[in-house]
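Structure (tokenized):
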């Protein structure tokens, strides 16, 4: 397995108290596989990813438990300089907002070239040639002419392509894309997502794709992990989860996708508010909002249990959910 996150726990110490942002996340990604991570805002998707990348804000963040095993090595046991090496060439991240992730006063070519001069010891001329090649590869028109331009001279979609190019530059084994298309126009979103999926296949990389949008992942993901209150509540091969969710929260998410063939239908949003991470509800954290909740849900935490091959659910009544 390329990456295995086991029982990861992250908390934030704030003036108001301790927010339990990640409460025992376990997931894995194989080479060449795409894992989509879904869940409402605040469910811990980005914090988990930041912990894996080693870019968590510490303090106020603190990793209080678990393991992050990447290519056989527990990253949480590495020193910062070893960690930096992994971050440079083993894994890379694509963020939502390219404009704030790219350096505004350096040309995109210079930023791409720096990957090769710093990490690969290339000459400046070779690095420039490599940068143009990379810009071509992410299909930026007239790469040779545009290599000297600055981030603000590119459209949002083109900037996102440049960020993908930066992430791919050193051919990492794992890419984490955190809402890579959210800031783009709908038509451009699909193009950028297709590009990401194509490069991932070509380079046989593992991809963790974080998104709110179940509609986007249907085509590109192999598996889906659904997060709620800092835990995985369901994990399954993508087609199975669309056919029949084994967790009421997943069911709620699926029902909230607007369907093109059902125009005018009322959008179903999950009732109630996401939990306060300083006071996560007892038992199943989803119980105050769950239409299937019973007494046991208020007292007993449902374990993330086996449903079928490759499929797990943290619900006491997953069978009823699956059949309902
Ligand atoms: N720097 C921080 N300081 C304090 N608390 C934080 C910090 N970063 C994250 N948190 C807490 O961790 C929780 C989970 O945040 P995270 O960014 O992982 O959510 P998310 O699932 O990525 O949501 P979104 O879909 O909005 O990006 C937040 O609700 C917040 O309470
Ligand atoms: S354990 Fe209970 S409250 Fe939680 S999702 Fe299942 S039915 Fe709903
Ligand atoms: Mg996030």
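Design, position by position:
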């Amino acid at each position: 397995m390329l990456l295995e996150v086991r029982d990861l726990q992250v908390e934030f110490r704030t003036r108001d108290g301790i927010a339990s942002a990640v409460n025992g996340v376990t997931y894995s990604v194989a080479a060449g596989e795409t894992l989509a991570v879904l869940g409402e805002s605040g469910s811990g998707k980005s914090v988990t990813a930041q912990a894996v990348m080693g870019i968590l804000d510490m303090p106020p963040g603190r990793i209080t438990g678990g393991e992050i095993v990447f290519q056989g090595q527990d990253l949480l046991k590495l020193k910062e300089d070893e960690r930096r090496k992994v971050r440079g060439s083993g894994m890379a991240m694509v963020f939502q907002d390219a404009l704030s992730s790219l350096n505004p006063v350096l040309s995109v070519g210079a930023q791409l070239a720096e990957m090769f001069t710093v990490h690969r010891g290339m000459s400046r001329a070779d690095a420039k040639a490599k940068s143009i090649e990379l810009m071509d590869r992410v299909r930026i028109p007239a790469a040779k002419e545009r290599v000297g331009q600055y981030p603000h001279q590119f459209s949002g979609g083109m900037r996102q392509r440049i960020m993908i190019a930066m992430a791919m530059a050193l051919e990492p084994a794992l890419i984490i894309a955190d809402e890579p298309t959210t800031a783009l126009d709908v038509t451009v979103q699909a193009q950028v997502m297709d590009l990401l999926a194509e490069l991932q296949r070509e380079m046989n990389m593992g991809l963790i794709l974080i998104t709110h949008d179940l509609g986007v992942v249907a085509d590109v993901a192999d598996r889906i992990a659904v997060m709620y209150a800092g835990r995985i509540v369901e994990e399954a091969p993508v087609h199975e989860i669309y056919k029949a969710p084994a967790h009421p929260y997943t069911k709620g998410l699926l029902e909230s996708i607007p369907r093109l063939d059902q125009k005018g239908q009322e959008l179903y949003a999950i009732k109630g508010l996401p939990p306060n991470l300083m006071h996560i509800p007892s038992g199943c954290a989803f119980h105050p909002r769950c239409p299937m909740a019973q007494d046991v849900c208020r007292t007993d935490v449902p374990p993330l249990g086996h449903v079928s091959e490759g499929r797990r659910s943290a619900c006491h009544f997953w069978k009823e959910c699956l059949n309902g």
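Reviewer-requested clarification: The mean pLDDT is 91. The radius of gyration is 21 Å.
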